[in-house]
Structures are given as C-alpha cells and as structure tokens.
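Quiz preparation item.
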C-alpha cells in the first residue's frame, strides 16, 4: 500500500470510527468499510501463509501493520465493543512483532469487550496474552529494559487476573515477572541487594514461588534458590 497523505489517514480513521460505532457491544461489526478491511486481512494472511520462515513472517507483519493503524485508532476512539476480527487479529500481530505497548492498548479494549480470536486461533485472548507476553520476555524480545518489562508484564497480570486460563500459562507469566524483577536487581551497583531493593526482591520471590505452585514444570527452582541466598546475604549485611 502506498504511503497515504495526512488527509487520507484522517479520513480512514474517521471512517473506521463511524463503522465501529455503528454496532453495539455483543454484536459483530458490519459495514462496507469493515468488509474491505476483512478482505485485505484475508489477502495478507494468504501471503503470510505462503512464507515458511517464522522470522520472515514477522518481518512481513511489521511492514503490514501501518496499513491498519487508522482502523485500530478508529475502533479505539469510536467503537462500542462489537466483535471485530480484524482488530483481534492485529492484536496478535502487534505482539508477534514486538510492539508490546501498542498491543497493551489494543488488548485492553479487546478484554473489556470480551473479544474472541478469529477462526484459526486455538487459544482465547487471556491465555494468548499470558503465553505471548511471557514468551516475549523469556525469549529475549522484551528484556532490553527490565524495568519496562516488569511494568508491561504487570499490566498483563492485572488485565487477565479474573480470567480463566491454564495454570501453565499463568505460571509462565509469573516466571517472567520474577525473572524481570531479578534483572532489575542485577542493574544495581552493589553485589548484594541494597536494603532499599529488598521489597523488589521479595516481590520477585513471590512471583517465582507462585510460578512453581502453579506448575512444577515452570523451571524456577534454581532461580528461587539463588534469590534466597541473595536475600539472606542482604539481610545479614544490615
């Protein structure tokens, strides 16, 4: 798609806002503009399906996302919560491409209005959020700034707290939060945990232990032992 002018982007956003606002919550989004977006999404998904490399798929998704930006903004601005398969799919794509902050904004709307993922996705949105944000950190895509990771993962935890989800998925998120908190501790100048950071260490421990309680296979035993020794050293040095 060619780069649209500011006027074209504004018109696209207003059209999306009006379309999203025309359908009430618990309904399904309808209208010509929505049908055109679904057609484009179908075409783009067909293109992605022809690509075997996961890495290449993610690269292509990143180039496609700007084409949908005005649609997302319009739904967020004027939507009343009607199911929107384009919007729901783009939530997944933003996570896939590492656009985590934007994904959180999209996820908040999707969760508020109890969206479902389109046909072809095997998980519901809460489980997908738990899995994919945790994997984002554990696979190194969200860990460039540990403090930011703690914030992002904490938002996901709160957003999904009341949702039914597999224990393994929730354990994975708690593991990621705990490890991110430990990474924040590692940024401290002192070898041991300064007293001011003990609260963060305790929170990290609580998350790691919660991960173990939810799933013995979470793989946090050694991290818990290391953190226990670190906290003890800090307490002894007080």
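Solution:
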């Amino acid at each position: 798609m060619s780069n649209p002018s500011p006027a074209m982007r504004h018109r696209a956003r207003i059209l999306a806002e009006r379309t999203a606002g025309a359908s009430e919550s618990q309904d399904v989004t309808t209208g010509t503009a929505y049908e055109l977006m679904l057609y484009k999404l179908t075409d783009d998904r067909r293109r992605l399906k022809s690509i075997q490399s996961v890495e290449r798929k993610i690269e292509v998704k990143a180039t496609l996302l700007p084409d949908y930006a005005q649609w997302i903004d319009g739904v967020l601005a004027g939507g009343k919560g009607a199911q929107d398969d384009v919007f729901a799919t783009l939530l997944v794509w933003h996570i896939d491409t590492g656009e985590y902050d934007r994904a959180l904004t999209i996820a908040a709307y999707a969760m508020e209005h109890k969206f479902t993922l389109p046909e072809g996705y095997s998980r519901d949105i809460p489980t997908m959020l738990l899995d994919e944000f945790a994997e984002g950190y554990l696979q190194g895509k969200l860990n460039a700034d540990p403090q930011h990771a703690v914030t992002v993962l904490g938002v996901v935890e709160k957003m999904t707290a009341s949702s039914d989800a597999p224990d393994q998925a929730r354990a994975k998120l708690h593991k990621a939060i705990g490890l991110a908190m430990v990474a924040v501790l590692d940024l401290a100048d002192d070898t041991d945990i300064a007293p001011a950071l003990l609260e963060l260490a305790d929170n990290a421990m609580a998350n790691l232990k919660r991960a173990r309680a939810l799933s013995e296979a979470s793989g946090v035993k050694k991290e818990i032992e290391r953190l226990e020794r670190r906290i003890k050293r800090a307490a002894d040095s007080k």
